Amino acid sequence: MSAKPVDVAVGILMKANGDVLLGQRPAGKPYEGYWEFPGGKVEPDESILDALKREFVEELGIQVLTAEPWCGVEHIYPHAHVRLHFYISREWQGEPQSLEGQAFAWQGSVGLTPLLPATIPLLEWLDLLREDEVSSAA
């Protein structure tokens, strides 16, 4: 395994009610059947935001209009060392479609299993973020 982590752009599509979109990893990929936030590898000479926008067009057929950097997480899987760059998008065009044959689901309080290991701690942080937004909007 390489010492240098692979940069991965990950997007959290968030509806006004706080629901987020999760996708299921397709057959033939490591951790197939596990649920994760959509995204993919950042290509050489590509910004993280550009990678995110490209992946969302390729995977879901939607155009991300705005996205804010949220957090970064490094995780070492048996097959890869990744540096995940999470962005939250509340503005996009189009309805998500399963362009790679993957299942996906909108979730409020996420109840899907199994979840990709690097995703699990983020769910608690997302819940806190949503609570903060609800209380500041009140």
Present the secondary structure layout:
Blueprint: E1 6-13, E2 20-24, E3 35-36, E4 39-41, H1 48-60, E5 63-76, E6 81-93, E7 104-107, H2 120-137
Parallel strand pairs: 1-6
Antiparallel strand pairs: 1-4, 2-3, 2-7, 5-6
Descriptive tags:
138 residues, 2 helices, 22% helix, DNA replication, Nucleoside Triphosphate Pyrophosphohydrolase, three-stranded antiparallel beta sheet, alpha+beta, four-stranded mixed beta sheet, 7 strands, single chain
Report on the architecture of this protein.
Its EC number is 3.6.1.55. With 138 residues, the protein is an alpha+beta fold. The chain has one domain (6-137): Alpha-Beta Complex (Nucleoside Triphosphate Pyrophosphohydrolase). 22% of the residues lie in helices and 36% in strands. The protein contains two helices and seven strands, in the order ββββαβββα. A hairpin with a 4-residue loop joins β5 (63-76) and β6. The chain is globular. The N and C termini lie far apart (49 Å). 25% of the residues are buried. The model has no long low-confidence stretch (mean pLDDT 91).
Distance between the termini: 49 Å
Please state the overall shape, judged from the principal axes of the Cα atoms: globular
Question: Helix fraction?
Answer: 10-25%
Q: What's the main sheet like?
A: 4 strands, mixed
Structurally, the number of domains stands at 1
N-to-C SSE series? EEEEHEEEH
Q: Kindly state the mean pLDDT as a whole number?
A: 91
Question: Would you kindly provide a brief summary of this structure?
Answer:
The protein has helices at about 50-60, 120-135; strands at about 5-15, 20-25, 35, 40, 65-75, 80-95, 105. The protein has about 140 residues and is an alpha+beta fold. It has a single domain, classed as Nucleoside Triphosphate Pyrophosphohydrolase (Alpha-Beta Complex).
